[in-house]
């Protein structure tokens, strides 16, 4: 299905507004008569994405009052509007009550958004961000497109969830395109423009900005908030925390502790509103986890797949282009093995559109390959902790003898399939894949392995060319890397 976010907005939203929660309006009205209401109002407003959204829309619409300077925080918006206008917003917005079970899907999205915003705010402070509340607000409103669908066309949002978790088993982005004709993020970008939402939100919704530190914090917070609903010990959650660790230059255990504390704080803050807390499976990371985390060998719970093994996965050309641009322009001081492999894995997974990607590094004894960076549209503990023994010799052993790439497919499966041991085939659970060995001078570093699991038809000539092209950039970057 093809669709246009602008047409969807015109048809389903028009001049409509996202609703505020009844609890928000009740709390605000209590504070309006306080001697210093502005001391308490921000905390209440921050917990309600619907109210926050309209607050910015109104404040950024008053160009003559602030000389065209955009409003970027709730406190700034309140100053520009004044108490009477804020009081007017409480009268104008539609309301709903999550405590009564109203709009359950929207409540879930509001709750997840607040968690993501609180994580991003905590991380921004750890990074000594000059205005962490700007990061908070952009993270809170990042899923505004999803919120709009849940409120104005909930049956379509339910259909998307069913395709992801129910009978359809599609990846999330594919499901959104299938039902709406566009991704939630594309709708968020249109609403951010239409409703005059903060400029950092606009930046965060542009794929070419994904590597910017503030934007990356916002995106990681979104991913973690969703992943944590299933398990804090899932690969996806732990991978997010590791990337935050690298971005903040903080010890892994400290980042985990700060984030877990943030999750508990967020859950307590929104519980009176009837929003869904994200504290499922919140557990302490054991001592020494900062080292374990880098090896990705902690106990990852075997949860239900996010998408099925045969789900199609759609590539995003703009992500692939941005990844290649990064490899071409990155300075030597920003190139290290971890950054190179993470960037490449993201490009292969999101840009080319391969649902399972792993960089498996050679162990020091050279006897096996062990997963170091994993990107997957599924949750699978076995794949995420992948270890490939190279003895007795088989296809991957031969591949690690020199730089080379291979595409196992229907045309050569009989020839190459015999070179893979049965236990390895059972582990991979597919018989079609791309692989590329990577060397630094004459020393083998490891191998990129990627597939679409059981959806073997998604592997084609163009994807293979893109995969080889990107791996060529990886090889070139390895020659310049400052830290391996």
What does this protein structure show overall?
- The chain has 484 residues and is an alpha+beta fold.
- It folds into 2 domains: 1-303, Orthogonal Bundle (Hypothetical protein af1432); 317-480, GAF domain (Beta-Lactamase).
- The protein has helices at residues 5-13, 22-32, 41-46, 49-59, 74-92, 104-126, 132-141, 144-152, 154-165, 172-180, 184-194, 199-204, 213-228, 235-248, 252-270, 289-295, 317-329, 337-352, 381-384, 395-399, 413-417, 422-428, 461-480; strands at residues 20-21, 95-96, 356-362, 368-376, 387-389, 405-408, 433-440, 443-451.
- Helix 6 packs across helix 13 and helix 8 (144-152) crosses helix 11 (184-194).
- The radius of gyration is 24 Å and the shape is elongated.
- It starts with a helix and ends with a helix.
Widest sheet, order of strands = 5-4-3-8-7-6
Profile the largest sheet: 6 strands, antiparallel
Looking at the structure, the CATH topology of the largest domain is: Hypothetical protein af1432
Report the principal-axis shape: elongated
CATH architectural label of the largest domain: Orthogonal Bundle
Question: Count of DSSP helices?
Answer: 23
Q: Distance between termini?
A: 45 Å
Poorly predicted regions are 283-311
The mean pLDDT is 85
Q: What fraction strand?
A: 5-15%
Q: Using only CA atoms, what is the Rg?
A: 24 Å
Can you tag this structure with a few keywords?
six-stranded antiparallel β-sheet, 23 helices, Beta-Lactamase, 484 residues
């Amino acid at each position: 299905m093809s669709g246009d976010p602008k047409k969807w907005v015109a048809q389903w939203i028009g001049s409509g507004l996202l609703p505020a929660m009844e609890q928000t309006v009740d709390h605000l009205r209590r504070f309006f008569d306080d001697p210093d209401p502005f001391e308490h109002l921000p905390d209440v407003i921050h917990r309600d994405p619907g109210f926050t959204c309209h607050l910015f829309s109104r404040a950024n619409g008053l160009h003559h009052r602030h000389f065209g300077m955009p409003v970027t925080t709730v406190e700034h918006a309140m100053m520009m509007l004044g108490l009477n206008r804020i009081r007017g917003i409480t009268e104008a917005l539609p309301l709903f009550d999550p405590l009564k079970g109203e709009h359950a899907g929207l409540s879930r999205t509001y709750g997840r958004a607040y968690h993501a915003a609180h994580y991003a705010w905590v991380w921004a402070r750890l990074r000594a961000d000059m205005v962490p509340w700007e990061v908070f607000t952009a993270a809170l409103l990042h899923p505004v497109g999803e919120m709009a669908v849940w409120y104005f066309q909930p049956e379509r949002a339910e259909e998307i969830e069913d395709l992801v978790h129910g009978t359809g088993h599609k990846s999330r982005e594919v499901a959104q395109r299938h039902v709406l004709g566009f991704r939630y993020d594309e709708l968020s970008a249109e609403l951010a423009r239409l409703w005059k939402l903060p400029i950092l939100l606009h930046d965060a919704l542009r794929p070419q900005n994904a590597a910017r530190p503030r934007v990356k914090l916002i995106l990681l917070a979104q991913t973690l908030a969703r992943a944590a609903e299933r398990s804090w010990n899932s690969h996806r959650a732990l991978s997010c925390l590791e990337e935050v660790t690298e971005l903040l230059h903080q010890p892994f255990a400290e980042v985990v502790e700060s984030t877990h504390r943030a999750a508990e704080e967020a859950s307590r803050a929104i519980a009176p509103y009837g929003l869904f807390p994200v504290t499922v499976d919140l557990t302490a990371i054991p001592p020494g986890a900062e080292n374990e985390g880098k090896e990705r060998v902690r106990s990852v719970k075997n949860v239900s797949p996010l998408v099925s093994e045969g789900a199609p996965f759609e590539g995003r050309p703009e992500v692939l282009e941005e990844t290649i641009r990064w490899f071409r322009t990155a300075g030597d001081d920003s190139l290290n093995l971890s950054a190179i492999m993470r960037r490449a894995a993201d490009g292969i997974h999101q840009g080319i559109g391969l649902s399972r990607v792993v960089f498996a590094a050679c162990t020091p004894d050279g006897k096996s390959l062990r997963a170091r960076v994993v990107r997957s549209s599924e949750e699978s503990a076995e794949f995420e902790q992948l270890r490939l023994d190279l003895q007795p010799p088989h296809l991957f052993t031969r591949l690690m003898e020199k730089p080379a790439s291979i595409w196992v497919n229907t045309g050569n499966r009989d020839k190459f399939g015999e070179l893979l041991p049965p236990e390895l085939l059972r582990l991979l659970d597919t018989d079609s894949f791309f692989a590329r060995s990577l060397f630094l001078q004459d020393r083998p570093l490891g191998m990129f392995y990627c597939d679409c699991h059981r959806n073997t038809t998604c592997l084609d000539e163009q994807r293979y060319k893109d995969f080889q092209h990107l791996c060529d950039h990886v090889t070139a970057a390895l020659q310049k890397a400052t830290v391996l």
